[in-house]
Write a structure and sequence with these properties.
Layout (H helix, E strand, L loop, with lengths): L3 E9 L5 E8 L4 E5 L6 H16 L7 H10 L7 H22 L3 H4 L8 E9 L2 H13 L4 E6 L27 E4 L1 H19 L4 E5 L6 H11 L6 E3 L10 H7 L4 E3 L10 H5 L5 E2 L8 H14 L3 E2 L9 H13 L6 E2 L5 H6 L5 E3 L2 E3 L12 H4 L11 E4 L4 E2 L2
Parallel strand pairs: 4-5, 4-12, 5-7, 6-15, 7-8, 8-9, 9-10, 10-11
Antiparallel strand pairs: 1-2, 2-3, 4-14, 13-14, 15-16
Bound molecules: D-mannonic acid (CS2) and magnesium ion.
């Protein structure tokens, strides 16, 4: 038995907020879990500190599945991003502990490596098509085999996925939500020229991805997909809001462009119909927000029955602890598709020293026991939480819209 004797939440803001759960056993083994929910961090911190941690003390850290079921069924109020990010953090920390006790990297506990490394995609973005293509060329020169293209939309002041001039992309940009304007018409006119130019300059040996970020109706998404078919996108992401899973039937009727969805999913129920009706090609649910390794493995196993692959979310608002867990999962899961990589800042990497590494367009979690990531608490303590919100979006007539 590895009795849980203490657990606490560490909140730090080395340029952006991260919430980390630290669990310690009676043998002094420490496990870490990411609990970061961009823009709602303190809700998860409180859910863990005030409602979960009291129930963990005295339990056997090795009973990962039982603790998962206890926290899911025992909550009564199931699902949702706050609950499932909290369960995800506990789950990651317990797998970290189990690996450390076994002296094995977590991927070995998940069935061992199914591949030599995890193919990743980077973010190429710019205010114009030219800037975006330049950023894509830079990624290809760094060895990336896959690049996501996001360009500014002519006539719009700001666009999701596009960094402010001279800054890294960080969507949580203000202590109250900033408001951005959206125009589907302007956007729809801008994507085909971007892909046309990209294929002309980059050729066909690099995978090109694009994130629609929940902005289109199903029929608009079908039209965009059809327009992009000649440029063979690797995927069109979040083409339409996915609460209505059946809406993807409309997109499927109009285009063969592969569809990816799910970075905001938090349980398999969010994707069940999409998977069973094969309405998507990649599922993006990730370790922190979808209940940890224990649950994301279940989502991937269901997806595998329908030849759907993983494409885990990997933005900078997921901490290096999630990146580590996602790479252990990605190295082992049979239906791995691709892993998103938005490199963290050097400061974040200093707060979270880790064993994972990038080489020639692939990443590997490393072979340190557990998840292979630590937290430098002394350094973390220097960076106090700073409230930050994701933007909101309105149409040009003022109507609230999807950000
Ligand atoms: C984006 C994210 O990486 C992506 O695919 O959708 O950057 C997303 O906007 C942020 O994670 C929101 O916090
Ligand atoms: Mg996205």
């Amino acid at each position: 038995m590895a009795e849980i004797v203490s657990a606490r939440v560490i909140i730090t803001c080395p340029g952006r907020n991260f919430v980390t759960l630290r669990i310690e056993t009676s043998d002094g083994v420490v496990g870490l879990g990411d609990a970061t929910l961009n823009g709602r961090e303190l809700a998860v911190a409180s859910y863990l500190t005030d409602h979960v941690i009291p129930c963990l003390i005295g339990r056997d850290a090795h009973r990962i599945e039982d603790i998962w079921q206890y926290l899911y069924r025992g909550a009564y109020w199931r699902r949702g991003p706050v609950t499932m990010s909290s369960i995800g953090a506990v789950d990651m920390a317990l797998w970290d502990i189990k690996g450390k006790v076994a002296g094995l990297p977590v991927y070995q506990l998940l069935g061992g490596a199914s591949r030599d490394g995890c193919m990743v995609y980077g973010h190429a973005n710019g205010a114009t098509i030219e800037e975006t293509i330049e950023a894509a060329i830079a990624h290809v020169e760094q060895g990336y085999k896959a690049v996501r293209l996001q360009a500014g939309v002519p006539g719009l002041k700001a666009t999701y996925g596009v960094a402010k001039p001279g800054q890294r992309y960080e969507p949580a940009d203000a202590s109250l939500p900033t408001e951005s304007l959206w125009s589907t018409e302007r956007y729809m006119r801008s994507v085909v020229p971007l892909f046309e130019k990209a294929r002309e300059v980059l050729g066909w040996d690099v995978h090109l991805l694009h994130d629609v970020h929940h902005r289109l109706t199903p029929i608009e998404a079908g039209r965009l997909g059809k327009d992009l078919e000649p440029f063979r996108p690797f995927w069109l992401e979040d083409a339409t809001p996915a609460e209505n899973q059946a809406a993807f039937r409309i997109i499927r009727q109009h285009t063969t462009v592969p569809l990816a969805v799910g970075e905001i999913f938090n349980t398999v129920w969010d994707a069940k119909q999409l998977i069973e009706e094969q309405l998507i090609d990649y599922v993006r649910a990730t370790i922190v927000h979808a209940g940890g390794l224990t649950h994301v493995r279940r989502i991937a196993a269901l997806a595998d029955l329908y030849q759907i692959r993983t494409g885990c979310h990997g933005a900078t608002d997921l901490s290096p602890v999630t990146m580590a867990a996602a790479l252990h999962f990605g190295l082992s899961v049979p239906n791995f598709g691709i892993q998103e990589l938005m490199p963290h800042t050097e400061l974040t990497d200093a707060v979270f020293p880790h064993a994972y590494s990038y080489k020639h367009g692939m990443m590997h979690p490393g072979d340190k026991p557990g998840l292979g990531v630590e937290i430098d608490e002394k350094l973390a303590a220097k960076y106090e939480y700073k409230r930050a919100y994701l933007p909101v979006a309105r149409l040009e007539d003022g109507t609230m819209f999807n950000w």
